[in-house]
Amino acid sequence: MRSWEKNVRKVVPYVPGEQPREENVIKLNTNENPYPPAPGVKRALEQLRAENLKKYPDPTASELVGALARRYSVKPEQVFVGVGSDDVLAMAFLTFFNSEKPVLFPDITYSFYDVWAELFRIPYEQIPLNDRFQICPEQYFSADHPNGGVIFPNPNAPTGLELEPDAVERIVRENPDVVVIVDEAYVDFGAKSALPLVEKYDNLLVVQTFSKSRSLAGMRIGFAIGSEPLISCLNDVKYSFNSYTMSQAVIAAGTAAVEDEEYFQKTVRDVISTREWMKEQLRALGFVFDDSKANFIFASHPRVPARKLFEALRDAHIYVRYFDKPRIDNYLRISIGTREEMERLTEFLAEFLKDR
Ligand code: PMP
């Protein structure tokens, strides 16, 4: 061991889904949107002037923040933006989870939460989902389970299951002394958002992303909406870390995306209808899964191990996500692509499963 190594912060990093280099693959492994961003995004990027890049961007990203505030009917002071929701969530962990009591989140959930907790040395406890992979709200109430904060995705990842609004509200209400973060990365694909609760509970932070429903994973934009005091605390931490998180290109592209409501509604509707069609196909092929409200389906097959399917699909240049983890190692998470991509997936599976 080199002498400096004892002072290194050692972490086991989050592993992002693979970005295959080969062309012509069917990529259903990172829950991207199969459609391009709104046409206005292209125009906004074309109008960027290289000579302006000599200047720093607006540190408050006020154009983007303003567009989001209008879209979600909140004040600009209630909106925080960051470099994808990963950045927003990391800042929120650093800002709000500064307690000696454990932060609570489900055992099966977005696998970045425990990584941030480890990185920031935040104590945490993973609360097991029930055997139908559902969140049990009572297990997150501070009276029975003293905690330093709560975070969960809704719909949950990688299960895609929605926790109904009443249960979300109970978790927020029963934790008045800590911040509750609802990670709504997939909410636009048919689940109900906790945003209406933000006016009622000043300890609720709702986090969303442009990566899925707004087709901008490559641009890296996420945001949080909450009470003014929460957002002000987040900004204090952000300005103590990196003031210029949003580039000129990001601000322009993000604003254009939010302003095209019609395109947003249309692409979301198309993804949902392909998902519902895909559910029928998977069911007919013998897969079992619950009712996903996200842009992916988390499914297993009673006869063929998920790992085997994952490898066979990969050999056929169809990428889905497989997690080699306890309780979920017999499931595939299949993102919803275009109808044509899902048809090709269905054809492959039908052929592969024929004699098994
Ligand atoms: N939350 C959840 C539950 C996710 O699945 C993802 C996507 N990996 C994110 C947050 C982060 O997405 P992004 O940083 O692209 O906004």
TrEMBL record:
CDD domains: AAT_like. Pfam families: Aminotran_1_2. SUPFAM superfamilies: PLP-dependent transferases. Residues 24-348 form the Aminotransferase class I/classII large domain. PROSITE patterns: AA_TRANSFER_CLASS_2. It comes from Candidatus Fusicatenibacter merdavium. It catalyses: L-histidinol phosphate + 2-oxoglutarate = 3-(imidazol-4-yl)-2-oxopropyl phosphate + L-glutamate. Its cofactor is pyridoxal 5'-phosphate. It comes from the Bacteria. Pathway: Amino-acid biosynthesis; L-histidine biosynthesis; L-histidine from 5-phospho-alpha-D-ribose 1-diphosphate: step 7/9. This is Histidinol-phosphate aminotransferase. The gene is hisC. The modification N6-(pyridoxal phosphate)lysine is found at residue 212. InterPro entries: Aminotrans_II_pyridoxalP_BS, Aminotransferase_I/II_large, HisP_aminotrans, HistidinolP_aminotransfase, PyrdxlP-dep_Trfase, PyrdxlP-dep_Trfase_major, PyrdxlP-dep_Trfase_small. Its EC number is 2.6.1.9. One of its GO terms (biological process) is L-histidine biosynthetic process. Keywords: Amino-acid biosynthesis, Aminotransferase, Histidine biosynthesis, Pyridoxal phosphate, Transferase. Belongs to the class-II pyridoxal-phosphate-dependent aminotransferase family. Histidinol-phosphate aminotransferase subfamily. The keyword Transmembrane does not apply.
